[in-house]
Structures are given as structure tokens and as C-alpha cells.
């Protein structure tokens, strides 16, 4: 029997053993009234301001189950989509609990107030915050549970608690008494939860800091792992949607006769789509009839009311705008620019990018009069639960949102508009209005995903830098043009200041002491945009690190020495990461074969610094990346094996941005790409050797999911400059036109 | 009712003639280990074996497979995850999100059977599957480990300790 053994107070209704998933949710909703997991971590994240409310008492609920067979199940308050939290977060609890790691399992928690990110105040997997924000939270849960087990054993054995030891899931008394955690769980549940608890000294860690293998590696190697796409509610039908070719356009006329004639197609209905548009949904017994049904539709679209973006026109507009100052972000004296001894003038171009996670979006909806159950690989449970409720005409507590293992996401599953979930509920509504009852499973094709918007925004940067005769930067005027990610969303009040979205300019300037005069233009365009792994740093790091490299060359200094000179004294972690990468790479010591060159870049994002020294060459006019040496400063490295994987993955995604065809473009409002055949992503033949080195530290861990991405492309570009003398200012790279 | 021999069992299914094998396997036979990633044979997440050959099932009509042909999916590669490639995969912590890995493993299993001494160039040629998480280096390493007799200890983990620490 499953025992939910840490449980008390306002959520006592869930304390009975054998609590069902649904009962569990009710408990969470009740707790939502008076219980906020306002677990404070000052300055921990970008949305920390949202938490400027009184910190409330933290009450553990349903984070941990110990079964009679000693199995420890940890509820992970995040989405697992490759980054390893289903392993690393249980590690945090198991460390303090002193559980037997071989008996620990991770489970993905459904939407629930108790699972909100302690720093962000909403349930989210983002901002590289899983470990960074829940490091203390999860350790405390483990430590409190251990204290309760010890208290129960002390009572039973009539010995002082201090004399009881815990070893690998077993309590050991002074006279040799022994009990497994599972055997003591019932008694421990009757103990009060200690208000405070002492956490381990890092020198006593047995799991944290060790390369621990993923708990899900085996199921993911045998086909057993169930993803959202694999989930089927009883009798559920598959829905495929014909969405408007231009964002927000509407159906003018539809002839569904051919679609309805396809065997397996049950119904064809008009449905509201994202951004006020409408589309046509084909609902069938399976994906294939639904998809062929969609192809058989004859739809006339009304695109008269929506703007039709064309990328070439947009680029010209952005470039023109960049010649004028925008809203100020930071100011500095630019008076010495005009008379500077050396000048750098540069215009950078970045395209829209699709996330293209391997598992296309999908969502199962079971809508009833009094409630709605949804299964989705959501990165944004609190927001999605609210949006599902609003669309269904329900209260959030009437919505059960089950978190499904997801095949990647990179930001696409954390949408402030909850686009794909709202659409799915709208489909369920029209389906039921048409007299049907079965749950609906909405499946996106890859084409739907590539064309579906919510891209990394396109950007133009314009920089004018002046250096004096000694190579000192004496003036730097910089303008950024692009769309705001958070404007028009609930995050706008927190993120947009003086008309500038913080996510557009993050990463500019730091860690260098430079007189950067920065402004930004926020452009509105009918293309939905979104955070894409490492957000603003996807472009700001490229601009900063290639410009600093260019300044180093203008100053006739070694780019590493130049960076070290230009960094502020407080940039100790930057220095350590850069020094480590340089030392391990052979840079400055080991000569490379002819035709190869080193390139260097570093960047801080999500409070982690990653420095790359790369080796590149050019073959048949095409850039080739051979090797990456990473210096990573993420403070405590909770699971180095996961960190290595995150660096490998983020570096590859950063490399992917540079490859020919890695761009989403629009013509007359229509996205021109459709699948992996014309939207390039990196393949095994693109993958360089990657060596990861971590700076040792016992400080509280910082983000790891995203920081490996930003410095890759600029390091590569800097190496290509050494090889070709060309400064690449446009992504993806095009050496021939540079 | 048409029939298919999947993982050694002959099973009946009903689908239109143009239905790709992938959707019959996933929706009719309820073997969901084989994944849909692109539908145009680009990513390889749907890779299964037909008579030992790796095939992208998302573009292969189920009606083109005879009941005599033997289909093997990830579920049938071994009953218990004991195929050398699967063992190497788990030992080297290859999967991240894991969505592409069934296809990766099926492609790799065919490669190491055909080329037991496979080189990096062989891996480059055979492993055209897409992974967005960046598992490629561990994929490569796991294949080398598997062909060396499946001793994962021989490969070691790239990260065994943190620089300068005694961990």
C-alpha cells in the first residue's frame, strides 16, 4: 500500500493511505487557499519580484512516499524533458534522507499549489531553475522526513534520538535495533514535522556531487517510457487541426465532404484557434485518418484582418530602426566615439527559430460538466491549469493537469497563452456540442510544429564602438530591435521596464567594464514569439562575445588576455570558468594542425558562467567545429553526469543556430519552412568532441539547463575569424556572403 | 483483416492501405515505443527492423509488409533490455528526453550486427537519426562500447569527478 506519510494540517484530507491521484489533486487545491509555498530564496530568479509577499510557513505535502517495501518515491515539481530533474531532484531528498538510492524513484507531480517553484511562485520548468530554486527545499524535505523517522524510532525503542543512526534507508539503534524506513513509516507519520532542520555539511554528501546515472535511462532504452504522445484515455479519439496559414486568420468557407468520406473520420468541426483565429479540426479513430482527413479539406481562408509579415521587409525595417536610439536600457558617455582612434561598426541579424522538440506537441483532454482532466507535457502547469479552466468555464481546482514525460521542449511547452492547451479544450467543447462524449487527443504533426509560431524572436543589433590608441574602449553605442516575448502576457509588469523587455537585452555588457550605451526598440509583429533555450542570451551573447573579440584584435591583444583585463574585479566566477577552459584546451600552448584555429567565448546566464574554447576549420567553404572545451561555473555540481549532458546538448543547440537552413522565414505572413527537410537541426556529423570541466564550489547551485548554449556560436565565429579574416554577423552563418 | 508478424507474434489489424506501418504499430498494436517525430523519414524516431533491415516506418505503408516478413520494434529487440546496445545505452546514460532513442537504438542494433567492427565513419553513415537534446557523443561512445563486447566499464564516464575536488 502506498503511504503518503508526510502530511498534516490543512491538507489532512489527503492523509488517508491509498490516496488516489484525484484525491491528491483535491488536497493540492484545498491547500491553495491558505497555503502558499512561499519558500524564499532571495534574488534567486528573474521572477523573484512576483514573490514579494510574506513568506509563509512551508509545509511539505506529497513530495515523498515511503512504501512498506522501503521504496522511496519523490514527486518532482518539474517537467522532465531530458534535463535530468527526475533523477537530480530525488538525489536532493535522498541525500538528506539517507535513503538507499537503489530504492528511490522519481515521479512527475501534477499541477498543484504545493509544487510551485519556490522562487517564481508558479509551477514552472524554466529559467534553468529546477535545481537552483529547489536545492534547499528538497533537501529540507529529506532532512525533515529523516528526523521524523528517527523520532518515531526513538519513541519505539525508548532511546534518545541522537543515538539513532541512519544508513541506506535503515534506522539503527544503540543496542543494535534495526528498522527499515518502510517499517517505521506509519509511526513516523504520527510525528510532528520539525519546524527547522539542520542540513548536511557538503563534505558529508554521498550523492550530491557524484556522477549519478539517470533513473529513466533504462525505460528510455527499452521503449517502456511513456510520453504524452503515447498516452491514451479510454475511448479517446485523435484530433488533427487545420490551422490558418497566417497567424490569427479565420476560416471563410470549408468543404469537408471529402474528409468525412475517409474511413475512420468521425467528425469535422470549426474551432477557435490561437490569436483570435479559427481553424478546422478533423477527429478520427486514429492519427492517420485524422491527418489524411485534414489534407482532404478544401478551406478558403480569410486573412484580411491580420498583418502578413515578410522576413525580408521586416529585416529592412529593423535595420532602419536600429539607426535611431530606442528606449534607454543603460546609458554611458558616447562623446568620445566620433574622435576615437579605431572604430568598429557592426550590424547583426538573427532569424526566428523554432524549438522543434523531438516529440511534437500533443494533449489529451477529458472534459466533463464538473471538471476537466488534461494530460500534457507542460512546462507551465499553473498558467496552463488556469487557462484550461478559463476556456472550459471551470475553476482552476476543477482542472486536473497531469504532467507527462515530454520529448524535449526548450521553452515551447511554457507558453503564457497556453496556446495548444486552450485549443485542445476548445476542440473538446465543439466536439461535445456536436453530441460526442469521448476524450480528445490532439496531435500536432511536425509541420504543425515548425509552422506553429512561438519562435525565438528575430533581432537586429547595431553597434558602434570606439577604441583609443592603446586599445581601450572609449565609447560603445548599441541599439537592439526585436519583438518582446512577455509584452501582452501576465509577465509584462515584471519583465517590461521603460518599454524594454528584460529578456531582449539580458546578457548585454556583463561581465565587462565597458561604457555601453544601450537602447532597444520593441516592435509589434504578427508572429508569436517565445523564450527559446537561454532566451535573450541566444543573441546577446553572440553579439557581445564577437564584439569583444573584435575589440581585442583591434587592440592587438590576445582575446583571452583582453577579456581578463576587461572583466570587473567581481567577476571571479567568470575568470575561474575561463581559466579552466583555457587551461584544459591547450589554448596558447598547443599548436593546432594547419587550417584549424581556436575561438573563445564566455557568458553568464541563469547565474551560471560557461566558457568555451573551441577548435574549428573550414572545409570546402563550410565551417566545421571539431572540439569544444568547456569551463563551467555552476557552484555545487549536483550531478556532474547530467551537467555534462546539459553542456553537450546546449552546445549542440548553439551550434545548430549556425548551420545553413537554421532559420524560420515568412513570406506574406506564411511560414516558409515545414519539416526537418527545410528547417535544419544538428546531426551526429555536426557534433564536435566536447570536454566538460567544472569549477569546484560548495555554494548553492545555479542554473544548468540553458547556460551552455549562448557562448557556443560566438566562440565558433571567433575561430572562423582567425581562419578567414571574416566577421560573421548573421545567423545562420554564411561565409560566402560575409 | 490484414496480418503482420511483429516481435515474433502474428497479429491482425485493420487500416486503410496507405496507413504507414508506424501508426499501425502504435495505434492498432499498442506498441508505443516506436515514435513519430517527423512523418517524412527525416528523423528516424520511427525506425523498426523489417527482416533485419532498419526501416523508417512513418513512410512505409503497412500494406507493403507481408505476414511472412518479420518486424522487430524496440519492444522486441530484447525481452528485458539485455541487447548489447540497450545495455550500453543504459550504462552510459545516453538518453536525455529519450524520445528519439528507440529509433537510435534500432539503427544502432542493425549497424553493430552488420558491422561488428564499425568505425566512426560507419556510425556517421548509419546514425542519421535526429536528437535535439545532443546525445550524439554518448550514442557514438555506446556503440563503440557495445562492439567491444559490451563492457561499459571499459568506456568510463566522461565526467567522473569535478576538477580539483576529491569527489
TrEMBL record, chain A:
<protein>
    <submittedName>
        <fullName>Molybdopterin-dependent oxidoreductase</fullName>
    </submittedName>
</protein>
<dbReference type="InterPro" id="IPR019546">
    <property type="entry name" value="TAT_signal_bac_arc"/>
</dbReference>
<dbReference type="InterPro" id="IPR000674">
    <property type="entry name" value="Ald_Oxase/Xan_DH_a/b"/>
</dbReference>
<dbReference type="InterPro" id="IPR008274">
    <property type="entry name" value="AldOxase/xan_DH_MoCoBD1"/>
</dbReference>
<dbReference type="Pfam" id="PF02738">
    <property type="entry name" value="MoCoBD_1"/>
</dbReference>
<dbReference type="InterPro" id="IPR052516">
    <property type="entry name" value="N-heterocyclic_Hydroxylase"/>
</dbReference>
<dbReference type="Pfam" id="PF20256">
    <property type="entry name" value="MoCoBD_2"/>
</dbReference>
<feature type="domain" description="Aldehyde oxidase/xanthine dehydrogenase a/b hammerhead">
    <location>
        <begin position="222"/>
        <end position="305"/>
    </location>
</feature>
<dbReference type="InterPro" id="IPR046867">
    <property type="entry name" value="AldOxase/xan_DH_MoCoBD2"/>
</dbReference>
<dbReference type="InterPro" id="IPR012368">
    <property type="entry name" value="OxRdtase_Mopterin-bd_su_IorB"/>
</dbReference>
<dbReference type="InterPro" id="IPR006311">
    <property type="entry name" value="TAT_signal"/>
</dbReference>
<dbReference type="InterPro" id="IPR037165">
    <property type="entry name" value="AldOxase/xan_DH_Mopterin-bd_sf"/>
</dbReference>
From TrEMBL, chain B:
<keyword id="KW-0408">Iron</keyword>
<dbReference type="InterPro" id="IPR051452">
    <property type="entry name" value="Diverse_Oxidoreductases"/>
</dbReference>
<keyword id="KW-0479">Metal-binding</keyword>
<dbReference type="InterPro" id="IPR001041">
    <property type="entry name" value="2Fe-2S_ferredoxin-type"/>
</dbReference>
<dbReference type="InterPro" id="IPR036010">
    <property type="entry name" value="2Fe-2S_ferredoxin-like_sf"/>
</dbReference>
<keyword id="KW-0001">2Fe-2S</keyword>
<dbReference type="InterPro" id="IPR012675">
    <property type="entry name" value="Beta-grasp_dom_sf"/>
</dbReference>
<keyword id="KW-0411">Iron-sulfur</keyword>
<dbReference type="GO" id="GO:0046872">
    <property type="term" value="F:metal ion binding"/>
</dbReference>
<protein>
    <submittedName>
        <fullName>2Fe-2S iron-sulfur cluster binding domain-containing protein</fullName>
    </submittedName>
</protein>
<dbReference type="InterPro" id="IPR036884">
    <property type="entry name" value="2Fe-2S-bd_dom_sf"/>
</dbReference>
<dbReference type="GO" id="GO:0051537">
    <property type="term" value="F:2 iron, 2 sulfur cluster binding"/>
</dbReference>
<dbReference type="InterPro" id="IPR002888">
    <property type="entry name" value="2Fe-2S-bd"/>
</dbReference>
<dbReference type="InterPro" id="IPR006058">
    <property type="entry name" value="2Fe2S_fd_BS"/>
</dbReference>
<keyword id="KW-0560">Oxidoreductase</keyword>
<dbReference type="Pfam" id="PF00111">
    <property type="entry name" value="Fer2"/>
</dbReference>
<dbReference type="Pfam" id="PF01799">
    <property type="entry name" value="Fer2_2"/>
</dbReference>
<feature type="domain" description="2Fe-2S ferredoxin-type">
    <location>
        <begin position="1"/>
        <end position="77"/>
    </location>
</feature>
<dbReference type="GO" id="GO:0016491">
    <property type="term" value="F:oxidoreductase activity"/>
</dbReference>
